[in-house]
Amino acid sequence: MNRRSVILTAASLVLLAALAFGYRWFSGEPVLIVHLRCEADVSGKLSVVKVSPKSSASSNKENAEETFDVANVCQTGKIAIEGYRREEAIEFTFVGENAATNKVVAEYGLDIQSDQNEFYTVLKIKKDFPFIIKDGI
Amino acid sequence: MPLDTATIIRRLAAAPAQQKDNEAQNIINGATTDELKNLDAEGVLRLFEALARLPPRIYSSRDAAAMSRLRDNTQFQPVTNTPEYGVGLVTGARQTRNFPLVTTQLVNNIYAAERTRLSWGERIGIDGATIGRGQLGQPAYTDVKTQFRNALEACATRVFIAELLAGAPDPTSNIDFGNYRVIVPEQYSAVIAYPAIEDFVVAAYLAIRIDRATKNGRSPQDTTRFAVALYHGMNQMVVAAQNATGDEINWGPVEAELRSQGHTDEADYVNEVVR
Do A114 and B142 touch (CB under 8 A)? Predict the structure, then answer.
């Protein structure tokens, strides 16, 4: 391999790395991490829906609801909600095995925080009422 | 009747178009030093405009002398006591829980800890998502703009009007002469050129993090430690450590867990800032 090839190969690698970094940089959707603190053996379903602020242009849009199996997500310890937009609130609905239910709304700034790289909030899940409690770090 | 902005508006409006600078001179030269000191931003900006920006736009030696008197006596003096000034604005706003925990030492320690962790690229000016001495990004600045809007505007007003008067008669881009207010930067990248505003933003972001780290049963020092960890973007590892130890209140077990998981530098960072 002559010197010209070495330089060309090195330049190509640098270009590829820059493109890969740039793609990741620009295509990354904002993520909200919901840290879960679960009581042992808790089970049920947890539904999550984004609530757009009243002042925003998307406030009239219906946001899709996502439902998670509590036992599974408690094992992972967190839920990642893709495409979260700053200022959106999150409505959490817990439905237990015996259909007992409770709902809490996590609001941006109070319960939902922004990190340098992502958004996060903390939720406690218990076997007994109120089942879901907003928590902090 | 003491000089106020309403009087300035009335007197300048009554002056002929070509003589507004003369009227501004009369207003400034006829005012006491206390009256000039008590003038608000709009009053100062209207006088600046009349002296330097309105037709015929001839900046005479008498205009310059009046501008000099205004600059020497206004409340909008260059900030020399920083980060004390920014920390004072944040604690004075009393908008967050445990706000007295924000101190100049904490801000300076953040700068020192961040400085030692700059990457090679950052040292030569190639910045990532976080910038400046406090290594904050746009999301942090947006939070500060939302929560400390009035205090941020007060900070920017002092810094930008002082800059405007120092560079007279040339206007600066940070002033909205249509509404006689300063323009608070939208982007954090525009803030870091102004150390006094950057200090304010770093102090305000620390105040927000301290507020969010406040929990029943947690000591003030541990509150500051958790806040600094969150400032440093450690939320995921801190929650993981809390879950592993079963302690959601105290920093000691979390720090030990962080170290056992190999997050030594992050644990060191917190100890360097909170001593």
Answer: yes
